[in-house]
Prior knowledge:
The chain has 616 residues and is an all-alpha fold. The chain folds into 2 domains: 5-238 and 340-439, no CATH class; 458-612, Tetratricopeptide repeat domain (Serine Threonine Protein Phosphatase 5, Tetratricopeptide repeat). The protein has helices at 5-24, 35-55, 57-63, 66-87, 92-97, 106-122, 127-148, 170-190, 194-214, 217-236, 240-261, 268-271, 274-292, 307-310, 313-318, 331-339, 341-361, 367-389, 394-410, 429-461, 476-490, 497-509, 513-526, 531-543, 547-560, 565-577, 581-594, 600-612. The radius of gyration is 27 Å and the shape is globular.
Amino acid sequence: MLTSKFELRLLQLVVVATSALVTLMFTSKAIDPFTLPKLLLLIVGATAALPFVFRNLGTLFRTISTGSKLFLFGLLLFLLITLTSALTSQNPVNGIWGEYGRSNGFLNYLGLAILGVATFFAFESPRTLIISLSFVAFVTNVYGVMQHNNADFIRWNNPFNPVITTFGNPNFAAAFAGISAGGYIYLLLFEKERILKYFSFFGMLAAIGVVVYSEVTQALFTFATSISLPILLWIFRRSKAIFLITSSLGTVLGVISILGVFRIGPLSELLGKSTFIYRTDYWLAGWKMMLNHPWLGVGADQYGNYFQEYRTLEQINRVNAAVMANNAHNVFIQIGATVGVIGLIVFLIFTISPIISGIRALKTLSKTHQESLVAALGIFLAYFIQATVSIDHIGLSIWGWLFGAICLRTSVKFNTNQVNKKDKYRGYSKVTLALGLIGTLIISPILIQKISFDIRMNNVVGKLWPSDAGNGPTDPSERQVAIESILSTYGTKNYDPQYTLFIAKTFRNWNEKDLALTFAQEVLTREPRSFDAWNLIASIYENNNEIQKALSYRLKSISLDPNNFELKLLVAQDYLSVGDSNKSRDYLAQVLRDAPKSTNVYQSALAVAEKLNVKN
Length: 616
């Protein structure tokens, strides 16, 4: 589709290099070592690909089917909905950039969409992408095996299983290993070059190592899905009878495994982890957000600001009121909750379309193209399964978008007779290139500054995370130096209210009340739904015996977390302190109704209630 082999190779290089670097990139010196660097490279790569995409739009729209045109219009519609949701939310900045530590805002999806369309232009067969995925995964998987064997060259502050590779979490690391297995099995079964076969053998061993060492259940499903389609094709070509038996047994095992995740059947002990039940709580909260905000959701990547409002009492009782979530742990529910029903429908259409289109195309392709397409479908299906039970991590999702695009591209037949070398859109290529460079010059420095600020914050207060900070330096001169260091580092270039909240909690623990209040109030000016900020200010006033002031903040906290009976006990105690026994009784009755009798909260409420003659 591109006018020269040079353009083609250059665009392929941009796509492959961007996906590889986004997956591998991290900086160990930052508080957020993973998502900010990956978002930076995603935006730079997408900007580099944009002129090529725009340059060939005319050819694309003249030569693809109506269905494919509708697909691309749907992609544009999704981006417009996401942008509108971000800009109309209570925190437009977070809607554009994404939640701190997640970075799944509008810019993330814009970058993924551009690279997806670029993949559609640049590749006619999935083989190059499969090999690229295999090499990138080999690096991450070998690194994961090293981490398991205590040979990590970085000393991470990691509360999880040590196998986090370049993703920062064993769930993502293992899922990527499972997805990459589809590439290795394709090379083992169908590749003609021996060196790639040998490479894929060792790559498969490393992938299996990460899946096993991570102890992540969902990785078993991504692994099994990604390898199953190439294996079934290989069997089908040799014996249709064995293919029927194998596919039937695989289907039965798959159903039993899925039931096992829900703690049903013989595999319930092996697969039915309690963490899956916790995820259903996140799904339910997201579903309720979508029903209550159907048009534009609660705001792009702003699930965390509404989770407590929509979580159930059962979720609190299952764990505790302090357990929060800033993502639905299901990409589709997350989309529905944060950008609305229409955005979800469009997203589902262009997520499912590559699967349907790819399956339809299998009958018309040569053997070689069948093999690579089947492998690509297996990889994309594995990503799809991962997306239903987890977070849309940039390092994973970029491969999902690329393989979705190549599955769709393989099924599209272009009418080469309509390709016009003098396409009118080509005249805009210089303008587009200039705009792309301007966009890069605007966005990249902001991201670089965000990363730099994150590193500086980590150097100054990263080791003083509120749970470990204690009361701060005891020596007055050292204490003043520490405070001045924090304030000077914070300065005026603060890019996310999470930093402000982090400093507020640090000063609260140091008993620097005025500073803590100042920073907590600043959080609320930028993030009015910050439960932590409202709660923090209330606790400071309570500790200072300013109960009347504390009450207004406690009541706002309850409006953001209406099922939190621990908060209601604090409100009841505050009302009692200011002499309002009637309101204290009301809140105590709610605590006694909702809190499990075995909890300290219930027992404390019962002791106060008995003095006020509140009936249980």
